[in-house]
Design brief:
Blueprint: H1 27-42, H2 51-54, H3 66-70, H4 73-93, H5 96-113, H6 116-134, E1 137-138, E2 140-144, H7 148-160, H8 167-181, H9 187-208, H10 212-215, H11 218-234, H12 236-239, H13 245-250, H14 260-277, H15 282-303, H16 305-310, H17 312-323, E3 340-343, E4 350-353, H18 359-372
């Protein structure tokens, strides 16, 4: 993944190897700005859990007509609130405050980002060990199975993530388990887990590759996978709001006093837009990741360990999205002829960064002047 590290006009820098720079704002003001921006995304989406893990559902039930959602005033209220948050963040991102917030996030997350592959591979391994220990499930808590072979296959996947030679086996194992689940579960049901499974598998394949061009895009594939998974999951709140009624009635505190028919569409909007925010500009995606982490951790208390285990892979990936120091606004930047490969400390992971803004333009201007003369 190509990126421009444009903090305070400096050139590319890697985590764990930062240059000391003057911060135009105090740390307290940076923290205050970060808290204010994050609050705009968090307030609309209280603690949530995957409904299929904790409440009855009928996958082949008829979905609610789309006109019902489009004529719901609370749906548009949620759209307006989140849009205001995104526009405010985009405006702040171009200011000194936005650059200071990014720099503050870089400093806080540098220890994690410098060991990003270790962290992600350990998280994947721990996840599959956990569902092996639970037993009777594959890939996620609501996919039940009586096959012991499935449980042992997941332990094998966990063992394969710690070597680059065996990581492709782990990636193939994840996709194979999803395909095997089609024997017992509806395709529509399994779509909930397709994007996440593909994203994690793509990460493992790219991280094991010797081609630095592929390897540099492993976190991009992971980010797209969790973003699409979150956006798809949020659609249940619009198509099947009645699935959430038993959950809300059992745990009414989740709505913070809002009526259920107000809470559910607004929660769906917030979940979808925060997932979409992971594909936006650097500050939007980092703050979206922070907001989603707050939401997932908040859900652990009312829903327990199953919720923590079920969301573990998404949460691990969100930590890395929040830690990613890349300043490139595009999801995938085009390869530039003046790019130079830099290696992440401790991993040999190629991460291509371009020259500071303006260097290429000055070079082209000089060449044009020579040609004219």
């Amino acid at each position: 993944m190509s990126c421009v590290h444009a903090a305070n006009g400096l050139g590319p820098r890697e985590p764990g190897n930062e240059t000391r720079e003057r911060n135009p704002l105090s740390l307290s003001r940076v923290a205050a700005g970060l808290a204010a921006l994050s609050a705009g995304a968090v307030f609309a989406l209280p603690a949530q859990a995957h409904v299929k893990w904790f409440a009855p559902y009928i996958v082949d039930a008829a979905p609610q007509p789309i006109s019902t959602t489009l004529t719901n005033p609370w749906f548009w209220t949620g759209i307006g609130l989140v849009l205001a948050f995104f526009l405010a963040t985009l405006a702040v991102e171009r200011m000194t405050l936005g650059r200071a917030v990014q720099t503050g996030l870089d400093k806080i997350s540098a220890p994690l980002w410098s060991r990003s592959d270790d962290f992600m591979r350990a998280s994947i391994g721990a996840y599959f060990v956990a569902i092996f220990a639970v037993g009777g499930i594959y890939l996620t808590p609501d996919l039940k199975t009586d096959s012991e072979l499935i449980s042992w296959a997941q332990l094998l996947i966990a063992a394969c993530v710690f070597s680059r030679r065996t990581m492709p086996i782990a990636a193939a194992g994840i996709i194979t388990l999803w395909v095997v689940a089609l024997r017992e579960y509806d395709f529509f049901h399994l779509l909930d887990y397709l994007a996440l499974g593909v994203g994690v598998s793509a990460y493992l394949l790219m991280a094991s590759s010797n081609d630095e061009k592929w390897r540099a895009r492993r976190f991009l594939a992971l980010r797209w996978g969790i973003a699409i998974a979150l956006m798809w999951s949020s659609l249940e709140k619009f198509a099947y709001p009645d699935w959430f009624y038993p959950l809300v009635e059992e745990k009414p505190f989740l709505t913070f006093g809002m009526p259920r028919d107000v809470f559910i569409p607004m929660a769906g909007v917030a979940e979808f837009t925060l997932g979409f925010g992971l594909l936006w500009t650097p500050l939007v995606r980092r703050l979206s990741a922070v907001a989603l982490l707050v939401i997932f951790f908040t859900a652990v208390y009312p829903f327990g360990r199953i919720d923590l285990v079920g969301h573990a892979l998404i949460m691990a990936a969100l930590f890395l999205v929040a830690a990613d120091p890349c300043r490139e606004a595009k999801a995938a930047a085009a390869k530039m002829p003046n790019s130079l490969p830099l290696r992440q400390p401790g991993h040999g992971a190629g991460r291509t960064c371009r020259r500071p803004p303006g260097a290429r333009e000055r070079l082209l201007g000089t060449s044009w002047g020579i040609l004219r003369s």
